[in-house]
Amino acid sequence: MTNHFIDFINTDVFMMIGSNSAENHPQAMKWIVKAKDKGAKLIVVDPRLTKSAGLADVHVRLRPGTDIAFINGMVNYIIENNLYFKDYVLHYTNASFLVNPEYKFEDGVFSGLTEKDGKKTYDTKTWQYQMDGDPAKDGIREEAIKKDLTLQDPNCVFQILKKHVSRYDLKTVSSITGTPKETLKKVYDLFASTGKPDKAGNVIYAMGITQHTYGSQNCRALAVLQLLLGNIGIAGGGVNAQRGESNVQGSTDFAMLNHYLPGYNPMIYAYKHSKLQDYLDKDVPKTSYWSNRGKFLISMLKAWYGDKATKENDFCFDWIPKHDNKNRSHMGIFSDMAEGKIKGMIAWGQNPAVGGPSSFQGRKAMEKLEWLVAVDLFETETAAFWHRPEADPSKIKTEVFFLPAAMSYEKEGTVTNSGRWLQFRYKAVDPPGEAKSDLWIADRLFKAVKKEYQSGGKFPDPILNMVWNYDKPGEEEPNIDQVAIEINGYNVTTKEVLPGFAQLKDDGSTACGCWIHSGYWAMDKEAGTVAAKRKLLKDKSGLGLFPQFAFAWPANRRIVYNRCSADPAGNPWNPKKALVKWDAVAGKWVTADVPDFKAADPPKDPKDPNAKPTPVPPDKTVPFFMQEEGRGRLFAVKGVNDGPLPEHYEPIESPVKNILSKQQNMPLATRFKGDFSKLAETASEKYPYVGTTHRVIEHYQSGAVTRNCPTLAEISAHMFANISPTLAQKIGVKTGDDVVIETVRGQITCKVSVSGVCVPLIVDGKEVEVIGMPWCFGYQGIAKGASANDLTPSVGDPNTNIPEYKAFLCNIKKAGKH
Ligand SMILES: Nc1nc2c(c(=O)[nH]1)N[C@H]1C(S)=C(S)[C@@H](COP(=O)(O)OP(=O)(O)OC[C@H]3O[C@@H](n4cnc5c(=O)[nH]c(N)nc54)[C@H](O)[C@@H]3O)O[C@H]1N2
Ligand SMILES: Nc1nc2c(c(=O)[nH]1)N[C@H]1C(S)=C(S)[C@@H](COP(=O)(O)OP(=O)(O)OC[C@H]3O[C@@H](n4cnc5c(=O)[nH]c(N)nc54)[C@H](O)[C@@H]3O)O[C@H]1N2
Ligand SMILES: [Mo]
């Protein structure tokens, strides 16, 4: 999230799109309801009538997978009707920047599309700015970029955007999405009303936006919209991802993604990083705050390899395993597994036998493993895959180990919420039986591996020399404080814990495991440790910032890009909700939040105790100082690999042809071979309905925990599908009947629920039925049921590889009918 949950009280209009906070983020919903009580409006954009939609002022039903049409339509409406926030757009976005005149958009694709060995990629050369100098050498310097401040030049970003979205008129959008034109106009007007200095519009999104072959472009479309309305960096605004598992934010911060190192530093790739200097040259921007990335990387290497990491040996850069640039995401791994390329797997706190796409094929792929280790609270479907209903255990050779793990209440550690706020939690109860904390398991596993390497091995150095100093004399549990200090960062010589990432160096004198968390553990006189903070007292701002409650990365900043909350001269757009303000008389910044820009230069003489920082005047500050060009990108010259502007494509499995261009699907979508290649054709007669998957309040994820909880298992005991009354009539079923749902990949049997949750939509004159299914069931636990993922396709977004869980083709019939 750019903002945070409590900040929702500052919002005037919410647009919740592809998120159902009432069921999946009840704490977020609490703040939305508080804002509504003060007069805020709520728009919910969802194919289903969800519990959130039930609380909405306007519910926009749209066909799954058509959000870009809906949002680009709104962007077009805003530009056509002059509803954008002009000063913001001009000064804080790249609207006036001129783009290479060779840039083109034709037949649904952008210039630079190339194909090699059957794989499509974009060469982004023509997407770049017109500028002086060599950006490869000097970076994307804002001063060097050619501009047209009148926004009239046909090659300026504003005109390119305007032309691009002009095709998304109300009629076209309605034909694609199935949303009536009147509803579109109503919500466009309502949300566009926030494009004023004293109004805040808040976009809340989650999996209905991301789980598509163009999930990243869906997010980009939302960012473009919010930039146009001046809603980024202000109280009550932002683009706010409602994240998943209680600590999924924390786990991505720590690189539980194959293409990142901790703190969102790019991964090291074999093909381009043979030495440290290659990384510094190619992946450390020349401009923006990211120009400090080298310090973050080198400090991380010092944290991992300690004294062994020296300037002379590239700080042991060679010891980090390099990515081979193959698909190492969930789907890539399971596809390799099916081909017998993977020997063993540790399923550590995950249940892919239920949660992965095409899970029927996924479970079959697991049979190719020599061994499987499941680290979990329960014997999940994954741990039990070898005796699953459809398998013959005598034919499965995989050796399965089960390591019982402690649950969150049974161990210590931090959790980071969607708003980037992290807090330390203490242990409430001891884990049962032989269950151990994940840290204990990781510690013993590492030590066992190290022991093996002591007698030789192919590449023992990184293992034998890894800093692993977490033993606490006389205690079983590893020293979690020591782990926290390593993450926070310390001075290598004095061992002093660092107050923040500004102190990190690239000369080997500092160590820091994850730069964005730097400072979180540094001692805070009042609170003990910063992360232990639980003080609600000090919110002088009245804006819900509560700086003493939890630590918000980075630097305890609550609202990122907050320079944009004030005009170029430093006067808050909305004086009632000021985050930062230039005091012209005193000649300094007055800040309620930690500034997201350089508000002052450090004292000239650091040794002089009386020396003071020098304030940086407003005209010398940069609104988006994490971006190389310092501006919000309406047009993305980099960052996404599948297009500089969002464009509507159909889901890979779609009931209709793309009416907007010849390009049916996202050209770069990730696809797989063999067992994972099965896809229905466009407008398939055999699979005429649109399937989509969602969560329910009673169950968590694959249901491993909640389906083992007797009360929850009882109140939500059956797998079901929501269908409309018209579809129910057509196939002759009523609520509670058994139905068979089938896709090209497999079929499931479950109960049917007939209500107004799903209704048919009129798409380009054709009636399209939507079937909604929860994906939380499986064959283990107290409440058992069919897994919706036996139906879902293995295709993904080219930037993130997230699977297209939210839109696919299926058929449905009454069980027992042929
Ligand atoms: N009770 C409960 N809470 C949870 C979880 C849980 O399993 N149970 N899981 C947690 C996790 S890991 C996550 S990631 C979050 C996810 O939180 P959400 O994203 O809110 O969860 P979903 O229900 O999967 O999807 C949200 C909505 O997207 C809608 N949708 C489907 N397709 C589309 C589309 O194409 N466009 C639009 N606009 N909407 C669409 C669905 O109908 C659904 O109502 O929830 C977290 N919280
Ligand atoms: N069709 C469809 N599929 C989806 C989605 C969808 O919307 N639609 N959503 C996707 C999303 S957003 C997500 S996040 C994934 C989730 O997919 P998974 O992560 O595979 O599913 P979970 O059920 O969350 O698995 C977590 C496991 O961790 C165990 N566990 C809980 N606490 C601990 C602990 O402290 N330590 C250890 N070691 N184990 C613990 C639980 O018992 C459970 O088995 O599913 C994805 N799958
Ligand atoms: Mo998630």
Structure description:
This protein is α/β, with parallel strands linked by helices and 818 residues long. Among the domains are: 6-116 and 125-241, Dimethylsulfoxide Reductase, domain 2, CATH 3.40.228.10; 330-464, Rossmann fold; 564-622, no CATH class; 674-814, Barwin-like endoglucanases (Beta Barrel), CATH 2.40.40.20. The protein contains 22 helices and 33 strands. A six-stranded mixed sheet has the order 27-29-28-33-26-32. A five-stranded parallel sheet has the order 3-2-1-8-9, sandwiched between helices. A hairpin with a 3-residue loop joins strand 19 (523-524) and strand 20. Helix 4 runs antiparallel to helix 8 (170-177), helix 4 (67-80) crosses helix 9 and helix 4 (67-80) runs parallel beside helix 11 (215-228). The radius of gyration is 27 Å and the shape is globular. The two termini are 48 Å apart. The model has no long low-confidence stretch (mean pLDDT 96). Bound molecules: ligand MGD (2 copies) and molybdenum atom. Its main location: other. InterPro entries: Asp_de-COase-like_dom_sf, Formate-DH-alph_fdnG, MoPterin_dinucl-bd_dom, Mopterin_OxRdtase. Belongs to the prokaryotic molybdopterin-containing oxidoreductase family.
Offer a few descriptive terms.
Dimethylsulfoxide Reductase, domain 2; 33 strands; Rossmann fold; binds molybdenum atom; iron-sulfur; alpha/beta; five-stranded parallel sheet; six-stranded mixed sheet; 818 residues; Formate-DH-alph_fdnG; globular; 22 helices; binds ligand MGD
